[in-house]
Amino acid sequence: MYDLGDTVEMKKPHACQTNAWKIIRMGMDIKIKCLNCGQIVMMPRREFDKKMKKVIAKHDSIN
């Protein structure tokens, strides 16, 4: 599905006309950052699941 650091595409474009967002915080709420203008939005996980379209790029974690 999605994880911290992943780049996701949302269903509706942001005011700056991009759909690409990076997940910067996960928990009960999801915090995402617009990759075009840098605005940060926080929303409940349930709302995020409804508004997310797909994962564009997975974050490469080195353990």
Automatic annotation (TrEMBL):
Cited InterPro entries: DUF951
Pfam families: DUF951
Alphabetized PANTHER family for the sequence: DUF951 DOMAIN-CONTAINING PROTEIN (PTHR38455:SF1), HYPOTHETICAL CYTOSOLIC PROTEIN (PTHR38455)
Name of the protein described by the UniProt record: DUF951 domain-containing protein
